[in-house]
Amino acid sequence: MKPKPVMLILRYLICIGLVFCFVEGKRPASPDRDIFAGATPCDAIIRPMLAIPAAADCELVKWQLLLLKGPEDDKAVRFDLKYTYGMSKAGTQGFVNDGTSAEMNGKWIARKKEGNLPGQALIQLQPTENKPISFAKLDDNIVHLLDPEGKLMIGNAAWSYTLNRIETVRHSDHH
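The chain above was modelled as a monomer; its predicted structure follows.
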């Protein structure tokens, strides 16, 4: 008895589907990434953290922090921090003469919060060429900069030390 064309097509589609699943399963997953951004004052504590020269004209720093995680167990992998600093341009959100841009990168780790530190966890950036920079992860969307002693940096009515999540991309979103 000859197989019906519908059965042949169905078998063909099942085979194609199995091959596609096998190929997809072998492709390495791209890492998860979270992107946080914010602006902080350029004060005596921030300058050494970001290697900003003491003599530089600087009142504002804009941060963009990319945290990359591996596909297994949300394990921390590396970070890229891009920042621009300088004097703010009156009446705009920009800088006089476009400011000075810099970048640092390295590995990062997440640890359980310590003592009476608010939030869910402690995030520590470990730059390849500078001292560690720490944040309290207040929730999934907000991280707050810590001073070198591990205490929350305190802002005022005009300034904050908080970075907000602007983007999340999960490797499962790509498949």
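The radius of gyration is 23 Å.
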